[in-house]
Specification:
By secondary structure, the protein is an alpha/beta fold. The protein contains 19 helices and 12 strands.
Length: 421
């Protein structure tokens, strides 16, 4: 846990984030939690995630936006009309002072605005430039819009492979692929920043959702080049090679996952736990290679299904855990929010929002022993620090007010229509 008194690793580092949705903001949130001053540059209407509660099954309240907090806590927000020449001047001043620039704009849009890496590199040779796209910076599809549901889950092979062949493809959720790619980007940014501080040489660090998906599934993607070995996905639950790894339904209608890749070692003990001591020394079931070669895996699978249907989820967890057999219940999100192990490891914390309501939030999943915990500053409302930031750039109080009056920058207030500016 964060328990020490050392400075946070990125104190003194300035970051400009010009991005929307999940992946790049999540990478920038990690940098903010590590102590960097992250300024989120938003359009006058703001990041769409500010107004997307219905998509995630949460209240449509910008003051209690757990999704936006997850990706944007500990940041400052400035809302700029970059189409206005004065607004673009503000953006350029921000980039001039930053160590890291992060964006998820598509390559063609960045080039049109002179915000691509090559254009900025000429002005700022030590700049660490991080970008994240759906499909990468090269190739015929580089300018396609990329969401994790399309580029990560679907194009990457998850949706078409990882479901029971007797069923429909799984329902997808927002952000899973985005968060994986975000931390890949953050890792690359850290390496590039280290070199930039040592040598003065900047770097373009790029991550794309398609590559992140393929890498994440790398074991199985590479195995797919050997079509004559093993079951090909999508497969059926009943056709599993090793029945000691998989999900089984308990008597109370819940699912429990067991994992015993070392089949031959675990088999005798497992059969005893499920009450089939008579099969503990079975000459075929107890030897994975032999069982597969003789086509007997389905027989063992059916035996386990029958056994699991006789006890409740809790009874099986207790019995398997006592025997030191790896298992875990298929929890739903409501249960995850109450998971004692997660709370013990400070995965969650409670935050008071400006609307007076308390909600559970999630911490960055990286812990330090010698470093104090990052402050849990809620995500800023749209343009909350617009005046503050431009004054830091050298604008006077009067000039900042004029920028607001001329709609070059914005401070959104509760009750205002964010889409009218």
């Amino acid at each position: 846990m964060f328990t020490g008194n050392a400075p946070r690793p990125l104190e003194g580092i300035k970051v400009v984030e010009m991005a929307t949705f999940i992946a790049v903001p999540a990478a920038a949130k990690f940098l903010a939690d590590m102590g960097a001053d992250v300024i989120k540059v938003e359009a006058p209407a703001g990041d769409f995630v500010r107004w997307s509660g219905a998509n995630e099954g949460r209240p449509e309240d910008p003051l209690e936006n757990t999704t936006f907090d997850l990706e944007n806590g500990n940041k400052r927000s400035i809302a700029i009309n970059v189409k206005d020449p004065e607004g673009r001047k503000i953006l350029d001043k921000l980039i001039d002072q930053c160590d890291i620039f992060l964006t998820n704009w598509r390559p063609a849009a960045l080039e049109r605005q002179g915000l691509d890496y090559e254009s900025l590199k000429a002005k700022y040779p030590a700049l660490v430039y991080g970008s994240l796209t759906g499909y990468g910076d090269e190739g015929p599809d580089k300018d396609l819009p990329g969401y994790d549901t399309t580029a990560f889950f679907t194009r990457g092979g998850i949706l078409g492979s990882l479901y029971d062949a007797d069923e429909s493809p799984m329902m997808l959720i927002n952000g899973l692929g985005d968060h994986q790619a975000a931390y890949m980007l953050a890792a690359g940014i850290m390496a590039a920043l280290f070199r930039a501080k040592q040598t003065g040489q900047g770097e373009h660090v790029s991550v794309n959702l398609l590559h992140a998906s393929i890498f994440t599934q790398g074991i199985m993607v590479l195995a797919a080049q050997y079509p004559d070995v093993g079951h090909k996905y999508p497969t059926r639950r009943v056709d599993v090679d090793n029945p000691l790894t998989g999900a089984y339904k308990t008597s109370d209608g819940r699912w429990l996952w067991i994992t015993m890749p070392q089949h031959d070692r675990f088999y005798p003990k497992f059969m005893t736990v499920i009450g089939r001591e008579d099969l503990a020394d079975h000459p075929v079931y107890g030897h994975l290679i032999k069982m597969i070669s003789e086509g007997k895996s389905r027989e063992l699978y059916d035996i386990i299904v029958e056994a699991f249907a006789k006890k409740t989820l809790k009874e099986w967890i207790d019995a398997l855990t006592e025997a030191d057999i790896p298992n875990a219940p298929a929890q739903v999100w409501e249960e995850v929010l109450e998971d004692k192990q997660a709370w013990a490891n400070k995965v969650f914390f409670k935050s008071m929002h400006e609307n007076g309501r308390e909600a559970i939030e999630i911490r960055t999943p990286v812990n330090f022993e010698e470093t104090p915990a990052p402050g849990e500053t809620p995500s800023p409302t749209l343009g909350k620090q617009s005046v503050e930031v431009v004054k830091e750039l050298g604008y006077s109080d009067e000039e900042a007010k004029q920028l607001l009056d001329n709609k070059v920058i914005r401070e959104w207030h509760v009750g205002e229509n964010p889409f009218k500016f």
